Amino acid sequence: MSYIVLEDLDFLWDEAAIQQIKDLWAIGVSLASMAKVVHRPSDEVALLIMDLARNHQITSRRSGVFGHAITHEPSPMYLYRCRCGITFGVAGPELAPSKRICPSCGRKTHQRISFHDAFASQPKEGRR
Ligand SMILES: [Zn+2]
Question: pTM of the predicted model, to two decimals?
Fold first, then answer.
């Protein structure tokens, strides 16, 4: 008898949720916390992360797959978004512009996004 794995999981992701996971990944947020933010099972988030890593859309991070729970995030956090599509983040003081080097392509980036922006893309009912 043959068996198909993971048949009960949803493999579909929309662009907004993918970007959100990339941003959360970049700042070291845990798998469990990312799952809560996007309202999906952590197994589905893990599959998306596996896919993004295989396609070089995310880079490895010091905190590993498990990361930190959101409630234990060190603050402040700063995020930078490169033209190549990678979002990367640092804890602690803001980086000097000359040190904002993309870990994926090595270019400098000038686009800074706040920690809150990474979470603000969640749909908020009744608010604009
Ligand atoms: Zn880059």
Answer: 0.58
What's the CA dihedral at 111, 114, 119, 124 to 10 degrees?
Answer: -90
Neighbours of ion ligand 1 (CB under 5 A): 82, 84, 86, 102, 104-105
Task: Map out the domains of the chain as residue ranges.
Answer: 15-120
Query: Which helix (H) or strand (E) covers residue 25, if one does?
Result: helix 15-26
| Main-chain phi, psi angles of 7, to 5 degrees | -65, -25
Separation of CA 44 and ligand 1 centre (Å)? 26
pLDDT 10s digits, 74-120: 455 677 888 887 777 766 667 788 888 887 788 888 777 765 555 55
